[in-house]
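tool=predict chain=A
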Amino acid sequence: MLKVAVSKHLADAGHEVIDLGTHSEDPVDYPSFCAAVGRAVVAGKADFGIVFGGSGQGEAIAANKVHGVRAALCQSEFMARLARQHNDANVLALGGRVIGETFAVSIVDEFLSVEFDGGRHERRLAQIAAIERDECEQ
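tool=predict ok
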């Protein structure tokens, strides 16, 4: 299971891993798990979150429903780098049917090693946050 391999890698690297489930390989309705990860990040209980699924698409969508989450589906180190540099992504979505364990670990390492560039990207993030606020008020 991709989550187990990534969690072990992170723990071995000295990161605290908070596992919010699921603990089975059986199919589950994932939105509540992804929301829990997003809420933990927004509440400051975790610096970043990672959500896992078959493709990672639905997991990213579900996590992004949490106000303040910027989840990015990344299928390469390049995508992970840009997600952090340009979008200040705080949740990473990975698809276990799309990438293998070794590549997933490399993507996670890239995601965690890159800082937000700020600058012109701050204006865009402010615009995204304004849209989020407007939508939440309706």
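The chain has six helices and three strands. Residues 10 and 120 are 31 Å apart (CA to CA).
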